[in-house]
Amino acid sequence: MRHALAGKVLAFVLAVLCVQACNAQPKEEKPDPKPSAPYRGNRGYDLPDGPFTREGTVVTASCSMGARYAAVAVQAWDPERWELREERYFPIPSDAAFTNHPGVEAVNSPLVDLCRQTGDNPSPYAVDDLEYMAPRIRALFDLAFTRMAVVLRDPGGKATHVGFVESGADQDDFVPLGDATGDDEQNAVMSPDGHSVWFTYTTPAGEHRIGSRPVEGDHRLSDEGPAAGHHLPLTVSGKPPHAVQANTVRFAPDGRRLTATAPKVFGTVFDTFASSGALTAKSARAATLLSGCVGVVGWIGDDRVLCRTSSGTFRTMDARTGRAEGARIDVVDAKDGDVAEGMLVSADGKRFIVSVHPPNDRYGENLLFHKPDFRVVPTAGGGEATSISHDFLNSGTVFLEWR
After folding, report:
1. Is residue 338 within 8 Å of 313, Cβ to Cβ?
2. Tens digits of pLDDT across the chain (403 residues)
3. Are strands 277-278 and 242-245 parallel, antiparallel or unpaired?
4. Measured CA distances, 368 to 68, 83, 394, 396 (Å)
5. 8 in a domain, yes or no?
6. What is the rounded radius of gyration, in angstroms, for the C-alpha atoms of the chain?
7. Which of 120, 118, 71, 126 is nearest to 96 (CA)?
8. Distance CA 358, CA 337 (A)
9. Suppose 47 and one of 53, 88, 223, 351 were both cysteines; which one would form an S-S bond, judging by CB atoms 3.0 to 4.6 Å apart?
10. How many structural domains is the chain composed of?
11. Which pLDDT does position 21 carry in this prediction?
């Protein structure tokens, strides 16, 4: 009897446990009411497969001008053999601002930097070191190098507005995005996906702002945030895109920090902005000063930066502490009188590209016939530099990206 009763009790207990176990199914997780933070780097964009987007590609740009035409040539290179994989041309419209000359409204555009034929033609920006020029010229193009942003002057040469040209378009086949009447739009650059042109502009009340216009549809102006006039270039990054107005803007691979410089701003490395705006003492957060760094060449991982130093050598620096680490990298002998300027670091952080030239004379006497001295240098130091030579490379060539 006792055994029968014990068996019934055990069966009842097991039944209860079974019911509890069967009902203890994982509850459906509720979505996080707060959206995840936007990604500020450029990963996450789906790019078409091709020579310009393939891993292990170096991209360069140069400007060529004739009696009746001007165009930007963009090349994709194999960095192991320095063989040309593909070349694209972006025609420059006749009313685009690619030079500044007397009698017309002076325009700030990285295109003016790229199309300078001699050192006598000044840059529209305060500093024209290659560490400054390379990132702002890169910003002219989308990630896949299919569109290039331009600033257009009206026939009177006073008002300016933005537009873009497609790769392979015919001369003067371009798309204006705004009404030139009374506009003051400068610093035109492309969004990473090529869907919009971003720029600085002046409101009727005289306020400086950052704006964007879509390349399709009605091209309506969208106000994106405050600007610090026209004297600093723009860089657009992230998904959704946002703009930073500053010099030498280079994003860490994870997109969380960036290098930049601006007048009266203390620091070199900053947290990535949460919204579009200019780098100012007020907007800069958690700044790290890279001691002795006069030009940022690029990031080596998420926490280290390669710098050109005040002594003319190159050093890897910790982006968290600002201190130099590792051996210095000597590219030129100071006794020879030449200087070396960095342009970009490879995606794996193991190599970087420099231009070697006499001080203040990167262009030489004749841009078209002056043979440049470009070199690939190991970032670890102590390795042997490799010269880059090709007929398509001249002193006006700028190295934009090493994927």
Report:
1. no
2. 444 444 444 444 344 444 444 444 434 333 333 334 555 666 667 788 899 999 999 999 999 887 778 899 999 999 999 999 999 999 999 889 888 877 777 899 999 999 986 555 678 998 888 999 999 999 999 999 999 999 998 877 778 999 999 999 887 788 888 765 668 999 999 999 999 999 999 999 999 999 999 999 889 999 999 999 999 999 999 888 999 999 999 999 988 999 999 999 999 999 998 899 999 988 887 799 999 999 999 999 999 999 999 888 999 999 999 999 988 999 987 677 788 999 999 999 999 999 998 887 666 555 555 678 999 999 987 778 999 989 889 888 999 999 9
3. parallel
4. 17, 20, 7, 8
5. no
6. 26
7. 71
8. 7
9. 53
10. 1
11. 42
- Alpha-carbon distance values, 125 to 18, 262, 365, 367, 403 (Å): 75, 12, 23, 21, 27
The closest of 195, 100, 193 to 143, measured between CA atoms, is 193
**What is the rounded CA–CA span in Å between residue 215 and residue 213?**
6
Residue type at position 382: G
Question: How many C-beta atoms surround the C-beta of residue 140 within 10 A?
Answer: 26
Whether 66 is in a domain gets the answer: yes
The residue range of the domain holding 210 is: 38-402
Q: Note whether 290 and 322 are within 8 A (CB).
A: yes
Q: How far apart, in Å, do the first and last CA atoms of the chain sit?
A: 82
Residue 345 belongs to a domain: yes
Asked if the structure places residue 271 within a domain, the reply is yes
301 in the Ramachandran plot: left (φ > 0), alpha (ψ -120 to 50) or beta? Answer: left
- The H or E element that residue 302 is part of is none
Q: What are phi and psi of 176, to 5 degrees?
A: -75, 140
Handedness of CA 129, 131, 132, 138 (dihedral sign): positive
Burial letters 71-100, b for 16+ CB under 10 A, else e: bbebbbbebeebeeeeebebbbbebbbbbb
